[in-house]
Known about the structure:
Among the domains are: 1-83, no CATH class; 303-376, no CATH class. It is 63% helix and 9% strand. The protein has 15 helices and seven strands. The strands form three sheets. It has a three-stranded antiparallel β-sheet with strand order 3-4-5.
Amino acid sequence: xxxxxxxxxxxxxxxxxxxxxxxxxxxxxxxxxxxxxxxxxxxxxxxxxxxxxxxxxxxxxxxxxxxxxxxxxxxxxxxxxxxxxxxxxxxxxxxxxxxxxxxxxxxxxxxxxxxxxxxxxxxxxxxxxxxxxxxxxxxxxxxxxxxxxxxxxxxxxxxxxxxxxxxxxxxxxxxxxxxxxxxxxxxxxxxxxxxxxxxxxxxxxxxxxxxxxxxxxxxxxxxxxxxxxxxxxxxxxxxxxxxxxxxxxxxxxxxxxxxxxxxxxxxxxxxxxxxxxxxxxxxxxxxxxxxxxxxxxxxxxxxxxxxxxxxxxxxxxxxxxxxxxxxxxxxxxxxxxxxxxxxxxxxxxxxxxxxxxxxxxxxxxxxxxxxxxxxxx
Length: 377
């Protein structure tokens, strides 16, 4: 508690509460508007897609409200993230690089290749280690599959009805429109109705492999913390194992303890959805933006290069250096320099000096100070 009696109840990008009410910065207000708009659009989509809530399962209403909160939280935090000067600069430059009219087709094909390599195949993680890549693949595809099944059902966008006159067949409806029929005892029906089971069988071994690395790898253990690294694994494991227990209950145990397991599973799912905007799960939404950074780098490498004013060697892309100078100004950092380098070359900004020369200049400056101290002594 501060000396003025203010007790903050939130930190970081979220609003604070003082003695007069909630205090929000202009950035937080804009983010709150974005979050409310996103949650509102999702609510409208649920209302329309479920035909005025006609196909929403009452047992899943808790999931629906948790999803709306998650939508608000993710949009709020994403908006706050995009309002940071470095992120905003990368975001704008990335879209500008992607939408170049003369290279639109090449950029689109390159995007598909990178999306497949970076996201669908996780090539960058496989390069680190094969067990780590396998664990990430299992968790990612298990979560994507379960999300693709769960959310349309929770929102009432997809539902199934028996075919009139044929109780052995189901009809699939999407947004109220009939799509296709299938027999519930067919292989397709078995795979479809047990889709969440297959997803759980992917997530559980992936989580166990990731947890094994977290507790056995000393380098990972030294840097990890419970909230960011272990809690997401515990939540994914809890959701998956309780979902499997539900399938075991109604398949082989004649519904024994089904109600308790259903409540327990609902609690784990709802807590995971509520935690979605706050922890490591948020990187699911941040990661795609890195593709824009890659396009930005490609454009910079194809253009003019920044040359060090001290050694006259290229060391980075010019557009990156100029953008970095602009971002530093927005953040209040001033690295303008009007003096000379160790070789007598003039420089107008510290960013115009390559990293190697910065280290040399630092060593030279230390040598001069040491010489002055020694002479003075």
